[in-house]
Each structure stands twice: as C-alpha cells, then as structure tokens.
Design brief:
It holds the Pfam family ResIII. The chain contains 8 helices and 14 strands. With 297 residues, the protein is of the alpha/beta class. The protein has 3 domains: 114 residues, tt1808, chain A (Alpha-Beta Complex), CATH 3.90.1570; 58 residues, no CATH class; 108 residues, no CATH class.
Length: 297
C-alpha cells in the first residue's frame, strides 16, 4: 500500500463575518501535507519546514487541525528528520524523534489506526470500502468525510443507530449518499429506505445525488412525474408502487415521504406492507422535523 499525498490542503475557506452591510472572510485553514491510506481516509498530517527551523518547530497548529480533521498522526519535519506525534495513546511514546528512514509504513500507520478505532477484520473491510467517485475530481468537504467515516465505523462495529447533526448547506444529502453507497457496495445493507418530509427533496435526491444507484432505486409513490436534473436533462422518476399500492420488491433502494409510510389514515400506513426486517438500513433526512412523532425512536 502506498500513501496518497495531498500538498497544501485547504479544508476551510475562512469564517464569514457579517456586520450590518459589511461582509468579511477570515483566514482559510490549510495544512502542508495530508497522507491518505485510501482516498477520503486521511491518516496523517505533516508540518513541513525548511532546515533553518528545528525539526519539531510549529506542530501545535497541525495538532489542532488533526483534531478537526479526525486524524490521529501528526509529523513535523525540517527535511532532516521527523517528530512523530501519536494521538491514539496506544504507544509508549506520545512524541518521538525519527530519522527519515524510520518513517512508518502505510501498513504500520493503518494497524495503529485500526487498533485505535477498535476495528476487527470484518469491520476493516467495510471501513475500507471505496467512496463513490464520478471522475470529475470533485472531493467531499472535510466535514462530510468526517461524518461519512464516523458513521461507517460505527456501523462496522455493530452500532444500530447513528445520528448525524450537520448545519444547513453542508451537504447532508451527498453525505447520506456516500454512507448508503459504501454499505450497499460492500454488501452489508441490501435493502435500503431513505425518508424525507417533502416531495421535492425525494425527487431532487433521486435525479441528482442518488443518480448513481440507477435502476436499483425507486420512489414509494403511485404518481409518475418527469423531473429536471441539475445538468438540465429530464428523467422519469421510477416508481415502486403500482396503482393499487402494491410494492415492487425488486428495487433495492426505496425513497419515500414520512407521510407516505405512516400516513394518518389506516389505508395510508404503507409500512404495514413491509415485514419488520424487510429493510436492512433506514436513513431519515431532517429527522428532527419529519419523524418526531410520539412513537418515534
């Protein structure tokens, strides 16, 4: 395994401050070098200085950034050697001086990372499942990577319920997509239900963020419609219900409204058509708003 390296990584553009009609942007946050075990699985940061500085100069900012980015290992270097900061607490030395030829191998770093996270062999296989990549070069934001990886790690270790709290505009839907994609591709979750509280959220999710699911995906609705994608093309939304509200169980990924599943009238309670263990994974968008019924868990 070879570590993927990203130089001069800007992970924020700077805080925006608004005072009356004046708007200012603060300093962007960046790190010199990020090492990835696999794409979107960051494992170490390197603070790089020239050899006019001491080998251990200036690591505190990188240590702060490592906490923000959920990265356990930080190295500081002036080109002549390294200072290795290990945030896992698994080694006898939290900080150690290394010669260039003593830099840990990718597998050594991953072994420590996996031990730190409490991953067994089965959990590791899921955690290392690839993200979806459309080839455009567009990368998820650091907060999305943190959320996706934290959710996958929790599920890999057997946690049944995960709550992600993300601010408006931080890409919750694309975050949900990557979580679902990795679980689905790994074969860990084969039947998946995605719930939202507005039709437009379902429709736009299907034709945009969830588009890679293709023919495996359908909407729990009897009403056909044509939706415009973000690229201007149009597509008919596939339906998982016929006119008599019978469910086509061949679809692996279903999207629907909370109201369509639990509707106020008995005949509208679509969830009764599914056995309790029909879906392996249920993802609820805006769960604070649409699923806050008295009997919700």
């Amino acid at each position: 395994m070879t570590l993927r390296t990203l130089f001069i990584f800007f992970f924020t553009k700077g805080r925006i401050t608004v005072r009356g009609k004046l708007v200012a942007r603060g300093n962007a946050k960046k790190t010199d070098v990020v090492l990835y075990y696999k794409p979107n699985i960051p494992i170490a940061l390197i603070e790089a200085k020239d050899n006019n500085h001491g080998v251990g100069d200036g690591p505190q900012q990188e240590l702060d950034y490592a906490e923000t980015l959920a990265i356990p290992f930080v190295f500081a270097s002036n080109g002549d050697g390294f200072v290795f900061h290990d945030r896992t607490g698994l080694r006898d030395l939290k900080e150690e001086n290394l010669r260039p030829d003593q830099f840990p191998s990718p597998d050594e770093l991953w072994r420590l990372y996996s031990q730190w996270k409490g991953l067994d062999t089965s959990a590791e296989a899921l955690v290392l499942q690839d993200y979806y990549d459309d080839g455009s070069g567009k990368a998820p934001r650091y907060c999305q990577v943190n959320a996706v990886n934290a959710a996958i790690e929790a599920i890999a270790k057997g946690q049944d319920r995960v709550l992600l709290v993300m601010a408006t505009g931080t890409g919750k839907t694309s975050t949900a997509f990557q979580i679902i994609w990795r679980l689905w591709k790994a074969g860990r979750k084969k039947r998946i239900l995605f719930l939202a509280d507005r039709n437009v959220l379902i429709d736009q999710t299907m034709v945009n963020d969830f588009r890679p699911f293709g023919g495996a995906m359908a909407k729990l609705s009897t009403k056909s419609k044509t939706i415009e994608r973000s690229d201007g093309t149009e597509v008919d939304v596939p339906l998982a219900l016929d006119i008599k509200r019978r469910i086509d169980t061949s679809f692996e990924i279903c999207l629907g409204l909370h109201q369509a599943i639990t509707g106020p009238e008995e005949r509208q309670k679509l969830f009764r058509e599914f056995s309790p263990d029909f879906f392996d994974l249920i993802v609820i968008d805006e769960c604070h708003r649409g699923s806050a019924a008295e009997d919700s868990a």
